[in-house]
Specification:
The protein is built from 14 helices and 21 strands. It is of the alpha+beta class. Strands 5-4-14-15-16-13-17 form a seven-stranded mixed sheet.
């Protein structure tokens, strides 16, 4: 019979996921619920002896849609993971030491301007003191005042100009998903994979575990972390190295006790050897120092992070080594890499879970049959390459757009050659204040504006449409918008008060 014979059932009947953690249990939960429920056998193989990295304690707003798709409510999620709300990221010392700005999950302005809002702000700021661009983003002011309320769906309302993500305990989230997935029929197998068995076409047919058990499947998902047990060690996908542009290759993480109520934002503070993150949860603070081993050794990074903790350390330092880059092919044959096995871009903009989510949803959209048409894997790899490269450029911008010269790291990133795709974006914004648009990929117009302006990439001119509003009308209008945002924020409950309502 031909492969196109409609009488032949070629549907995927079994999926094996290698590795647990955030990526593995997200994949198991989504595939089990959304793909052929009741007829598809989903098995996850993991070893309790192999620890997980625990990436993704800070999320983007897209994560809310993933939880909803697998039937998880916000209340049960936040209770299970000690989560707090996240309105964006506060960046300190990136453009220059002593400077700070906010990357909000929302727009600057009221969202109804004829030209992008920052052009009006640019025009007015050349002749008057109109404050920071952050003053005109509702979520930035909410974060600064530590207030929170969900956005409204009312079109045109100021409260509709933002969204939010979460800050969560990634270990608790994986455990939460595991409990739900196993209750829904996912089979967990304890064991270490010692052999990957392939057929004469190179497809993976089974894996052999340390105790001799063989686990077979039609489709394999590699969630084995940096090892890339299937996609790299067995299939030799290859790796595209981006460490020239993203030289931080190490991290140390230490959770500590809360010294004050949790804040509705993540903080990223640039230091000589890299940068420190602070992720406040309900029950602790996640802290880490992401650094370049060419500039700083492991002990020095640990000592500096310990010295900057706001409370008692709650665990021993956890050290990681990594290389920034992307697997050359994330889908090969009947194997799809998800999470760290597919590559890693440092956690500066909280993109790890987004890339896990994007890989899972794209795989489900392109769900194959047992013929494994190469067109499916080509499209998957195109989408994931595009996502990773656009995130890469956005992260590089944070490093390159700096005036810091206080260490070899900052000297390198400030003066290095850039990918053409990013160099063009910077030139366009610097000359005309325009953000290069794209229909697919993460980080839309407001995100690029926040980082460009926050780190001192100032356009030479504003858009001519902004000149349709005279200064005599524009400057009072901006003052009125700032006041409207201030009044709206003052009327909101505190972040902790809103969390208290979620916990009850």
């Amino acid at each position: 019979m031909s492969s196109a014979d409609p009488t032949v059932d070629r549907r995927i009947r079994s999926v094996v996921i290698i590795g647990g953690g955030t990526a593995g249990w997200m994949a198991a939960s989504a595939i089990n619920r959304l793909v052929d429920p009741g007829r598809l056998k989903v098995t996850l193989v993991e070893s309790a002896e192999i620890g997980t990295v625990g990436v993704g304690e800070s999320t983007l707003p897209h994560f809310r849609a993933f939880n909803a798709s697998i039937g998880v409510t916000e209340t049960e999620f936040m209770r299970a993971t000690g989560a707090t709300f996240k309105l964006g990221i506060r960046f300190e010392n990136w453009g220059a030491i002593g400077e700070s700005y906010f990357h909000p999950f929302g727009v600057h302005g009221a969202g109804n301007e004829e030209a992008p809002f920052h052009h009006y702000w640019l025009k007015a700021s050349r002749t008057a003191d109109v404050g920071s661009i952050d003053d005109y983003a509702l979520p930035a002011v909410m974060a600064r005042d530590e207030r929170f309320t969900p956005p409204t769906s009312e079109p045109g309302a100021l409260g509709s100009t933002f969204t939010y993500g979460y800050q969560m305990d990634a270990g608790l989230y994986a455990a939460f998903l595991r409990g739900r997935a196993e209750a829904a029929g996912v089979t967990r197998v304890e064991g270490k994979v010692v052999k990957v068995n392939q057929d004469d076409r190179g497809l993976i047919r089974s894996v052999t575990l340390e105790r001799g058990e063989t686990v077979e499947a039609d489709l394999f998902i590699d969630c084995s972390g940096f090892r890339g047990l299937l996609i790299e060690q067995a299939l030799q996908s290859g790796f595209t190295d981006w460490s020239h542009w993203l030289p931080c290759d190490s991290a140390v993480a230490i959770p500590c006790a809360l010294s004050r109520p949790g804040t509705p934002y993540t903080r990223a503070t640039a230091l000589k050897g890299g940068w420190q993150f602070r992720i406040p949860l309900q029950h602790r603070v996640g802290n880490g120092y992401v650094y370049s081993s060419d500039v700083m050794d492991r002990q020095a990074a640990t000592d500096e992070l310990v010295g900057r903790l706001e409370g008692e350390a709650l665990a021993e330092p956890n050290h990681l080594r990594f290389k920034a880059g992307q697997r050359t092919r994330n889908w090969m044959g009947n194997c799809v890499a998800v999470g760290l096995s597919a590559g890693f871009i440092e956690p500066l903009e909280s993109t790890s879970i987004y890339l896990i989510q994007k890989a899972i949803t794209t795989l489900i959209e392109l769900w194959p049959d047992r013929t494994f048409d190469p067109a499916d894997s080509r499209e998957f790899n195109r989408v994931m390459d595009m996502e990773a490269e656009r995130i890469r450029d956005f992260i590089i911008l944070h490093y390159h757009a700096t005036r810091r010269d206080d260490s070899p790291l900052w000297d390198h990133v400030r003066t290095m050659d850039l990918p053409d795709s990013l160099a063009g974006k910077i030139d366009l914004f610097r000359s005309r204040g325009l953000v290069q648009q794209y229909r697919e990929g993460l980080f839309a117009h407001p995100s690029w504006v926040a980082v460009f302006l926050g780190q001192g990439v100032t356009p030479d001119r504003h858009h001519p449409l902004a000149d349709k509003v005279a200064d005599a009308q524009l400057i009072p209008g901006l003052a009125g918008l700032r006041e409207a945002i201030r009044r709206a924020v003052v009327a909101m409950p505190g972040h902790d008060a809103w969390l208290g309502g979620v916990q009850r």
